[in-house]
Design brief:
With about 130 residues, the chain is an alpha+beta fold. The protein has a single domain, classed as 3-Layer(aba) Sandwich (Aminopeptidase). Helices cover about 30% and strands about 25% of the residues. It contains four helices and five strands; from the N terminus they run E-H-H-E-E-E-H-E-H. Strands 1-2-3-4-5 form a five-stranded mixed sheet. The chain is globular. This is N-acetyltransferase. It holds the Pfam family Acetyltransf_10.
């Protein structure tokens, strides 16, 4: 049974293992991973016993908007609708008065639409340098 948490703390190593399984992000830089965790004020996680199997990570004012930078689920757990449950629970946790905005990274347009997101053209990005 999958358990969800808005309060459980994760380590940089746990995040690295999860991100490595999905092939994203700078997993070799543990200090950077720790900063990614420490400076995100939204971290909603999915657990199978004590094993991290999914997460939503973002920044929010908890009043108007939440910018989601990661929605990640281990490949061997992706047929269990964990991604959908993470988004739904995140939205419930923040309240329906808070809009969720997701960066277009790692998910197809169809994936994002299945999660309830609508495509917007009103955004711009200044890309980071690695």
């Amino acid at each position: 049974m999958i358990n969800y948490s808005a309060t459980k703390i994760i380590s940089g190593n746990q995040l690295a293992v999860l991100l490595k399984m999905v092939g994203r992000r700078p997993i070799q830089d543990n200090r950077r991973l720790q900063r990614m965790i420490a400076n995100a004020n939204l971290l909603y996680t999915a657990w199978d016993d004590d094993q991290l199997v999914g997460l939503v990570r973002g920044i929010t004012d908890k009043a108007y908007c939440c910018y989601i930078s990661d929605v990640v689920v281990r490949p061997d757990y992706q047929k269990q609708k964990i991604r959908q449950h993470l988004i739904e629970r995140t939205h419930q946790y923040l309240g329906r008065g808070v809009s969720l905005v997701m960066a277009a990274n790692g998910l197809t347009a169809n994936d994002r639409q299945r999660l309830g997101f609508e495509k917007i053209d009103s955004g711009f990005e200044l890309k980071r340098q690695f």
